[in-house]
Amino acid sequence: MNARPGWHHHLRLTYATAEAATAFAVLLGSFFLLELTFHFTHATKAGYAGAALFPQIAIGLLIVCSGKMLVEYLLGRWRGRTDSTTEIDLDIAGLVPMAAIALAYALLLEPVGFEICTFVLMVILLGRRMRLVNAVWISAAATVIIYAVFALLLQVDLPLLFLPAYLPIW
Amino acid sequence: MIELLYHLLPAFSTVLHPTNLAVILFGVVVGIAMGILPGFGAAQALALMFPFTYGMNVATATLFMVAIYSSAEYGGSIPAILIRTPGTTSSAMTVLEGYPMARKGLAGRALRLSLYSGVTGGLVSTIIFIFFATSLAWIGLRFGPGEMFAIGILGLSIIGSFVGGTPTKGFLATGVGLLLSTVGSSGFGGLRFTFNQSYLSDGLPLVIVIVAFFAMPEAFRLLVERRGETKAQKLAELSGGDGRQHVSLRDMINLSPSLVRGCLIGTGNGSLPGSGATIGSLLAYNFEKRMAKHPELFGKGSEEGIVAVESSNNAVVAGALVPSLALGIPGSGAIAILLGLLIGKGIVPGPLLFSQEPGYIMIVFAGLIACNVALLLVGLFGVRIFAPIASVPPAILGPFVFLIIMIGAYSYQAEMADMLIVLVLGVIAYFLEKLDFPMVPIVLAFVMGPIIERNLARGLAIHDGNVGFLFEEPITLAILAFAIVTAVVGFRREGAKPIALAERPDKALAPDA
ipTM of the assembly? Predict the structure, then answer.
């Protein structure tokens, strides 16, 4: 944690800056959603609850909390309070590939099929940390086991290609 | 109460059906195994195993979930004692006394003490549960929308104030959960926050929200983080080869004051919405230290410390069921998953459940007893088998956890959109957790949001739009006043930490199940 905050392989921010950035994002999002609530169905009579009342209460809570965090951050900086001792490693470089693989799996599961998608996903994830041969057979076994548990045992409707031909669903 | 007892025998008959016994046993094994894995608490275990309940009837599914919940709390103590790595956050206090005992060659004794106290905690709180929940349901039947609204607000106030590093973050997380609960059909005509996506018109499924906020961040952590992969963890010796490992009935009788205190603290704490086992174990440990004749022995392998913490941890399970089944207000993140299961199977938790479904209530009661007996048996004979699970490298574990989450999400309604929602919310949850935003308030507020909104709307409709109905009944006023006091105390606690933004908050009260 001696490196200075910023971009390296990982995104390192000071803890307070990361908190403030999150609070700012929540605040912006809250105002955007608040604007949407004015277009919701109105109450039938004055004083009655309409569709917007409860979301507005929830958004109010978000605005107060995120506003408080931002004000405290700005006050802290204004008073010269330092926060350079505590850093947070967001590990963007690690997360982005994982999220991309997950997204690809979610999008391709139906068009490509469970067997190929699952096998390839497991080979990619396991192959990073073990010998490819081991990754391949473990992935094949995992695909069959997940099929057996979810499709055969729990009768889940998976987008299957060829496994039912060898291990038929009863 | 008497009516409930008529259903006791049929309930035990249901629980003892071979299929249900097998499911309980499987749930206990899965729960212990998942509790052992560092980072996996009861909530994560339940979220991950939720898809397995799709094909089960409501009784079997409930027994499965209760078995996992009870045993995950115990499972967390095994690596805490053996390798100084708590499997669940609530087992963090077990490390303080369990590991020093293991270092003295008394690991077997520490594990047995943990097991016996956990099982006792579970059984005692089950007895308390049936009396307390029945009384609370009876009171709940007399509650109108004003009182139910106030109880919901109190629940949110407790969760926001005391779950997580700071109340600001706790309440912000609560706001996120409330907002997510408003997605979809409003009940007042029209849709909310659907962004023209027909998938969202029925709202976000509770299962998907639970998996996204409880299980997905853990999967990302396992996939992304590289710490500790290569370091083989050495398991402490399980036996010192002498009679000191044995825990006799006399030993347990001598430790019974600690046991009783742990049970009561755990049950009471569990019945408070959102407080969970971590805070219960912290309270039980500190209270036990104050009551101890030899407090100087704490931190060096005190048996009283282990017994108090472990009985409290397991007593939380039945305690958390009290407000959940009696009022429909979830007592913990893990119980929110159980509520999701019930709602999904057409059972509405709340005061009417006790009069309309007494058979089900007694199945839960009998199931809790059976789960604790199964836990005792599996714990006695399976510790040696389970212990090495703690040393499975994250790089191997991560892909399997991730795959089960994705297939589990898809299985819910065979929708690709469910996987995408889990993914998006999971990434957000991963970053929020890095910043110590608690996940439990998000899920609990998501469950409680519709209850609060419905009762507010009903109250306003009954009283012709006059919000004054919230201040007419003394009980409503008292509950609301308590909610405000709770929030004020929470923020005063935050105020006592002047460098809250500059330093990472104390993780001792990190969110748990």
Answer: 0.89
